[in-house]
Amino acid sequence: MPAGRDVDYRLQGYDVEFLDLEVEGLQPTQQTEENKPVGGNSGPHLDDQVVQSHQPSDHLSSHSSLSHRDTRRTSALPPTLLGRSSPLRTYTLMIISFLCGTILAIGHHLFYEGLDGRHVPERDQFIIAGHHISSQQSAIFGGTALVFFAKFCFSFSLGHVFNQRLWYTMHRKWIKVKGLDAMFKVPGDPLGFFSLEMLTKAKTVAGVAGVMWCLSIAFIPIPGSLSVKSVPVTTLNRVSVPTVNITDPAVNFGSTNTLGAYNSPSTFAQAVASRTLTGGQVPAWNSPCGTNCNYNLTFIGPAFQCSSPSSVNIPAVTPKWIANQTKGADIDVLTISYISDSAAITTSTTNCSSYRSTYSIGVSFKDGVFDIRVHNVEHHEPFGTTEPLQRWGVNGAPGAFNPRGLGSIAGIKDAVVKAVSGSVFYDIQVGLILQDTLILYSTLASYGANETTRYSSGQSSTAVSFGPDVPRMVEELLANTTMALMASSIWTTSTEAIVTFNVNVFSYDMRVLWAGYGASIGVTVVLIIFGAAAVRANGGGGDRTFTLIGATTRDPSLDEVFGQTLKDKQGASSRLEKKLKYDSVDADDGPRMTFHVP
């Protein structure tokens, strides 16, 4: 019998061929009067079915006219496919855009590294259209621009990787229409990730799309790698500072008698001594060199050299603290005696000799807080006020004949002596009584366990005591009074000051910058490898262009899915459940790559 026409069907993804289909006594293309249907109402015979298989109706011809090839033997994007890109172009776009992003990242690093540690000027750097742009703003603008363009390059590269994996996956799997919808829109619409069909059938495509969306997260910390911080800067400046100049003939801290000789400390000197004694420290003055600076000074002034307290038995208890005024023919001595042990009926005595001395001090201001320290006191010659002051400074000693200068030194010293001289005794009814002295208002005296407690008027406690450090404290009292003269700014001098001030500088943390860029570069490299493999397997580059989509949807079988008219309101959701696959088919006019239904 004559052989029938070959019919090729695809069944469950396999090629099944029915060859040499024959019907007993009937040619496939012939029909006799005997086997014609009568009246057109009787059902079709087997012969009719065979004939229909070889001579299809308009509807069936749309399916049987295309023969589907084995996917494994065809390229997804052959060279003759309209809208397809060459492999070289696709490789170039993926790699070059990645390299551009990497170069921009390196440039961003070098830009910030050049700014690191540089001073941020306060003045405007540019004026654009009337807008003042500072150096800090221009640095931020430049860094932001580099981040933007680097992200653009990496996103461009990943976009091409996504397209290659998209065509690679559609060529190998049957995917529902709704899954294809999600795959095509997910690069621009994150709602596509809610498609279970895409997540299960196109995992790599979904992964690349996820990286594209999350890439922005990696770039978030990068602008924060450059900040502005305040750092201390130290310079050496010559500044004008307060000092002590007792040899200045225009200033005299001692009053004179009718003969013009030194007689007693001036009222101003006594006020300075009293304020220093009761305050317990040198009064502060305004910084001449800023909120953070320090400088050293040397000057001439009076100083005490006190002996350690000695204990002596006395025959009777006298309720007095005895402070003797100056005495001696050639040296002034302050003698302080007080009862230190009432049970043993003994007194403690400290003798303080007066010297013309050179002070070496350090003055500092830290955040505006004043501090002054005595580094060294060099004693020269002793001096006394009971003989003519002209005798002081003989034999070539420092500070030769200068009666007014000598009177100032004596006035400062005697102002301190006058403040501490006098008596203190205890009255059983009223308590401690002070007579011509401020000693109990100073830090020399302490009360009971709380040594920081100061004397107050009417205090009844008898637990006042003078410790073994009284000699040192008396020396400090005269030194502080002398240095307190600087608070009046009577004299100034020029000296080198170490000035520390805070400046704003750029601070670059490369770890923050490369944490973002490093993650982007690493992930992009891995995905480019996947994209390149897809280009090789596809035989070319694919995009989501209208041309390529139109060229790959020329299968008449797609009318089952997309042949709905505007008046047809039924079955829209069921059409989205249809599975499609992109592969090669044999059409009447030759093979073509297209989407088709099973």
Automatic annotation (TrEMBL):
Region ranges (Disordered): 26-79
Transmembrane feature ranges: 91-111, 139-162, 204-222, 512-535
Basic and acidic residues bias (residue ranges): 56-73
Keywords, sorted A to Z: Membrane, Transmembrane, Transmembrane helix
Protein name: Uncharacterized protein
